[in-house]
Amino acid sequence: MTLDGFENDTTARIVAVDWASLAEGEAKRLRALGVDEGAEVSVVHRGVFGTRDPLALRIGRMTIALRRVHARAIEVEPA
């Protein structure tokens, strides 16, 4: 399952990231923020309009905004 389809307020573990589908700068930023294989994350909020973009993602004590197109590149499993 990819992160964009994961339920809110449920902890997940990142099992794979399709780095090739992301622009180099975007991939570098996500890695710097801790988005990588093995990290535990949870979706805490989704946008309210039709695309439900962006997602608010919690990694550790940090909350980051992530576009759904980026969330589709992140494969997760329940933690």
Report on this model:
- The structure is a single chain.
- The protein has 79 residues and is an alpha+beta fold.
- The chain has a single domain, classed as Ferrous iron transport protein A (FeoA) (SH3 type barrels), CATH 2.30.30.
- The protein has two helices and five strands.
- It has helices spanning 24-32, 68-71, and strands spanning 11-17, 40-46, 55-59, 62-66, 74-78.
- It has a five-stranded antiparallel sheet.
- Strand 3 and strand 4 form a beta hairpin.
Short characterization:
The protein has helices at 24-32, 68-71, and strands at 11-17, 40-46, 55-59, 62-66, 74-78.
Strands, helices and their partners?
Layout lengths: L10 E7 L6 H9 L7 E7 L8 E5 L2 E5 L1 H4 L2 E5 L1
Antiparallel strand pairs: 1-2, 1-5, 2-3, 3-4
Keywords:
iron; 79 residues; 2 helices; transition metal ion binding; SH3 type barrels; globular; 37% strand; single chain; Fe-transptr_FeoA-like; Ferrous iron transport protein A
